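User: Thanks for the earlier help. One more: SGNH hydrolase-type esterase domain-containing protein. Can you show the sequence and predicted structure together?

Assistant: Of course, both are below.
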Amino acid sequence: VETSAIGMRGVDERAANMAFPLDAAYLQIFPQPSGSHSLLLTAPITDIESLLKELPSSHFDLPHVSQIRPHAFKVPLPGKVVDELCPTVETHHMFARVACIGDSMTNSVDDGKTPRGYPDILQAMFDRAGIHVKVRNFGKFSTTAQKFADYPYWDERRLEAARLWRPHFVIATFGHNDAKENNWDRAAFEKDYADLCHEFLERMSPRPFVFLVAPPPVYKPEAYDIQQGVVNGELQEAVARVAHAAERKINEPIEEASKRARQLPPEELLAQVSVIDAFNFMGGAQLRRPTYFAEDGVHPNERGTKLLALTVFADVRRDVSRCLRKWADNANAAAQSDPMDMLG
């Protein structure tokens, strides 16, 4: 086992100075003429030290900790290179990366009263279901999908962090802050939100599934200057149009090229953008579930946050499970092939 570790002063510095996912490991397997295999592992140094203590020396020729070679990725590796060199990112570990982006529906202000958001609960639901998923919260309260509103998500470093994490699934909750009186511009919202989807969809390795959450209803008029009529009357259709536009922008050129070639487009190249109907599940225009919301009438309380997480989980789990099964099938097929094929 040859190891390469990342040794920097702290997690914050590491995240600020490079694009290596802090909770991932890259493993390369090199068959040797003797029939053995050389493993090259790149991971955070603490993970490598723990791994060296657990691997049996009877089966592995282990290096001493002093032999670990530290290095940092100042520039992220191209996605295709990572996938070809390190298939274990998506097969050996068998977990799907789910990035949650959005406003306070995803990550609210830490006031000690309002739940921090649904992603932690979503992670627990996947864990209980035995579905191997890593959920990360990239949300930021008060942000908008519009580029020229008061707090655009576009200006947040979390957007770039989410992209560099290379998620397989993206769940977005935007709309409440866009619906504020000084912000609301339906055309700008739809265009900028679709562009935000493209920030993720333009990456082909992997091409993520994108889920847009139709925001929950607002129960109190003009709370936080949010226009109740816009949220409860316009946003659902606007979000649906965003999903359609974002998907078609990616898929139309692919479908046209496939049509000219008289063949079906490869499924893995096509974008999939779906809408999660949290609006009706959380009470709809009739405001049927006021007890699921905090006193401000905008943010879900603890009970409502659990319902929001359940709504997301119910919509996402089928696609996540399907992807994991596909990766497992591919891994099994690769395991049954001749290892020497890896030498080209």
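User: Great, one quick takeaway?

Assistant: Strands lie at 2-6, 26-31, 37-44, 69-70, 96-102, 133-137, 169-173, 209-213, 272-276.
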